């Protein structure tokens, strides 16, 4: 099972659309904030995909939750934009929140810096920012052999 993970699209509908087209195997899409408007627009073009979204600090007036804890493909995900957990100042707070909620995978954005890591049973992915010509996104593969996270540069 492939899950497309994007964040910080900042009104770049075209980049978001390109990422979805580039990952046709991804039946699930997670948007980690700062792009609710374009995420909802693009979602309408891909009704066969399941979308999860959290609000970012630039999603003014959003009614989306600041964080989600969801089981997808048998794996527990902690999803947040990251501003509420102060990720620009370190990852201790967000990692602790993910562990306290029993997550196996931590997904966050906000820093615009792509990151994939593994720490003591916790897979960590920040897809970076999908905005602009140097945009990045990530994906999570859940297989019988385990979990794999990856960063992709949108060309």
Automatic annotation (TrEMBL):
Pfam families: Metallophos_2. InterPro entries: Calcineurin-like_PHP_lpxH (IPR024654), Metallo-depent_PP-like (IPR029052), Phosphodiesterase_MJ0936/Vps29 (IPR000979). The keyword Repressor does not apply. The keyword Repeat does not apply. Keywords: Metal-binding. Its cofactor is a divalent metal cation. Its EC number is 3.1.4.-. Gene3D superfamilies: 3.60.21.10. This is Phosphoesterase. Belongs to the metallophosphoesterase superfamily. YfcE family. Residues 1-140 form the Calcineurin-like phosphoesterase domain. GO terms for molecular function: hydrolase activity; metal ion binding. It comes from the Bacteria.
